[in-house]
Amino acid sequence: MVGGMNETGAVLFADKRVARVSAGESRFQHEFGGASLVSSGRRIHRLYQIDFSDPNVPHVPHLEGLIELFYCFDFREGVIGWFPGAPDRLFFDAEYEFVSEDEEFPFDNYPLEFPRVPVRVDDCGYDPTDLRDAVAFAGVFGIDELAPADYQKALAWQREYAVRNPAASDAEVVASFCDPLVQECPSWHCLNPECRLFKSRTSILPFCVVSNDPVKGFYLFEEFGDVQVIFEVCCECGLILASNQAT
Questions:
Q1: In angstroms, what CA-CA distances link 177 with 16, 91, 107, 145, 235?
Q2: Mind listing the pLDDT tens digit for each residue in 170-210?
Q3: Tens of pLDDT along 80-114?
Q4: Strand partners, 45
Q5: 4 to each of 1, 8, 10, 35, 124, how far by Cα in Å?
Q6: How far apart are alpha carbons 28 and 50 in whole angstroms?
Q7: What's the CA gap between 70 and 242, in Å, rounded?
Q8: How many CA atoms lie within 13 A of 105 on its CB side?
Q9: Residue 58 has what DSSP assignment?
Q10: How far, in Å, CA of 213 to CA of 209, rounded?
Q11: Nearest C-alpha neighbor of 60 from the set 208, 211, 229
């Protein structure tokens, strides 16, 4: 059983496969942290380097070899986009309104870069026919592969603990699943104006969720609160998108 996002670290998911990223040595070039960079007047922190040649890493369209995952913790931006290998060319969502006017970070004396920590990627053995596995990743994979009895159990759980509306239709309940995200899938669209699907969500695929404490004792935001950094990719042009969610 894979479990959810209650552990330190990050989770990678695609093609009905799930892998956990956690501190530890690996023969692959996985790493947390590293040098940040400044682009368009914004400091961009490197969260992870993931080696997609590792067979434990799920296959994600357009992502091959060493992929760096960045995020802008400056509240002047809520979502950023970049192409693999080119984080100095950033794409922003000019229509996103919930941003600060001045430079602001999650807490005072925010680190200029995160400490480098070796990490490993372990396949979690996700089984879409297992009730707990399916519910833990229903927000990205759905629950269609459950046996009919387990499918109804999943709906009953969701009605009681999330929807809290016994009269909700099955379609409404299914649409309300969000795990492993703390909210529904982000509604970001492709930010690449040269993409055929620019400003469309048609081809956007979430593939990674990072917890607030990716390394034990180190927090991205504050020591409390359920906050995540979420990574997606445009399956049309390969642009990576990064945003955050909180309860």
A1: 16, 29, 31, 15, 23
A2: 999 999 999 999 887 777 899 999 999 999 999 999 999 99
A3: 999 999 988 999 988 877 788 889 999 999 999 99
A4: 71
A5: 9, 11, 10, 29, 11
A6: 8
A7: 7
A8: 16
A9: P
A10: 12
A11: 208
